[in-house]
């Protein structure tokens, strides 16, 4: 998906499509990169087509819901699920290992920190589920991480709309 396609879908179908795209993006759905979708949302805010506060609220909720699903997959699927997934997709094993290391080393801020690193951010919730991280700590770190991530990417589209739209 490119920025023009994202702009078109969100302009045409509105907040529901935006919510679904962000939800799927936080689930690490293929072909839905945050670096395209969220700046497109920021561009639409800069054009006055969307309200910034409404967008932030909806994208944060979508992000938290996506991360919750991954947490529960890890929680109930356990280490067996993670091993099976990394065997099927061996390129992700180093990222999973790095995620586990960061969470273990930086107990309180590890989850937040991991949510700000591309690739790792999409694995952290599943790993936290496998590790049986306290649910309230998971929700707090997820919310903080999602707010920061969404704010940065949506704001980049808002601030640099002209740059993104140049051909």
Automatic annotation (TrEMBL):
Highest taxon, organism lineage: Bacteria
Residues annotated as domain VTT: 33-158
Keyword NADP attached: no
Predominant localisation class: membrane
Intracellular or extracellular location(s): Cell membrane
Membrane topology, record value: Multi-pass membrane protein
Residues annotated as transmembrane: 6-24, 29-46, 52-74, 138-161
Pfam families membership: VTT_dom
Gene Ontology CC, one term: plasma membrane
Record's keyword annotation contains Zinc: no
Keyword terms: Cell membrane, Membrane, Transmembrane, Transmembrane helix
PANTHER family registered for this protein in UniProt: ALKALINE PHOSPHATASE LIKE PROTEIN, UNDECAPRENYL PHOSPHATE TRANSPORTER A
Assigned protein family: Belongs to the DedA family.
Annotated protein name in UniProt: DedA family protein
Species assigned in the record: Clostridium tarantellae
């Amino acid at each position: 998906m490119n920025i023009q396609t994202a702009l078109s879908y969100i302009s045409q179908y509105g907040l529901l499509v935006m919510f679904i795209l962000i939800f799927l993006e936080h689930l690490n759905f293929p072909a839905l990169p945050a670096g395209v979708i969220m700046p497109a949302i920021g561009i639409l805010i800069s054009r006055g087509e969307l309200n910034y506060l409404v967008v932030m609220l909806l994208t944060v909720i979508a992000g938290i819901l996506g991360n919750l699903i991954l947490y529960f997959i890890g929680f109930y699927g356990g280490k067996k699920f993670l091993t099976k997934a990394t065997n099927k997709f061996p390129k992700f094993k180093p990222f999973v290992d790095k995620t586990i290391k960061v969470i273990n080393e930086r107990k309180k801020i590890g989850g937040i920190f991991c949510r700000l690193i591309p690739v790792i951010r999409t694995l952290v919730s599943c790993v936290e589920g496998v590790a049986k991280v306290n649910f309230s700590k998971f929700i707090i770190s997820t919310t903080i991480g999602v707010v920061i991530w969404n704010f940065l990417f949506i704001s980049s589209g808002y601030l640099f709309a002209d740059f993104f739209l140049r051909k």
